[in-house]
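Problem: given the chain below (303 residues), write out its structure.
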Amino acid sequence: MNPEDLKDTIKRELPNWLREDPAFRAYLMELTRGEFADRRETSDRFYDILGELRRDRERQEQKWAENNRKWDQNLSELRRDRERQDEKWAEQNRKWEENQATLAAMRKEDARKWEQNRLERERKDAEDARKWEQNRLERERKDAEDARKWDDNQAELKRLHEQFMEQARKHDRGIGALGSRWGLQSEQAFRDALAAILEQSFDVQVVNVTEYDDTGEVFGRPDQIELDLIIKNGLLLICELKSSIDKAGMYSFERKARFYERHHQRRADRLIVISPMIDARARKVAERLGIETYGDSTEVESI
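Solution.
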């Protein structure tokens, strides 16, 4: 039998040998005595350990009992402190509520008095305002009546004055046009007068521009051309201010305006001719070319 089979047999049969063969069991115990303690020694050691554990538990229980006693004592002290604090808070709350009630009563009384005084002031202010408004309306009525009469008188005087002055200015411009026509006055001076009226009436600036037509587009040969421009709020108005204008002059003005438009690549919003002496044939040409004509600067429609 090999060693491994022998070991397996011993493991399987050993329990039965120990139970059935006392001599074998005693032999085995004697053989292993040096490796294991006997029952008596084991029991004594067990009881020693058990006693030590019991004493440790008793000491721990005593400590827990002492800690619980101190905890209960502290808890009782904290409970008494809390009760004393609650009593103090209750007393403070009682005093606070009493003070608040007193303050509320005082505020209510003050509010009643203030409201009573306010109503009295409002009544007096309303009465004063009514009397003041009544007096103001009466004064305004009288002032308005006086102002109306004054304005009516001033308006009538101004109307008569303006009417007289306008007639005088028209007569002056007509005479000036005749003078320019017959060489008694310069054409430039007449143009400047018409431009000044435009600037005063419409709050614009009349700009005289000079261009050179080097291809003869306007007059058939290279020459200098002059135009009056009005530029306002992005609008471009091309004007001709003359003491008199005939059919040929109307065509010439239209050619000069178109030359300026092409030269500056901008379309004029309006073409205007102002002259106290416009030939009847020139008016027909102006209508056909879309040119506005006026006998005086004051007759120009709003710019």
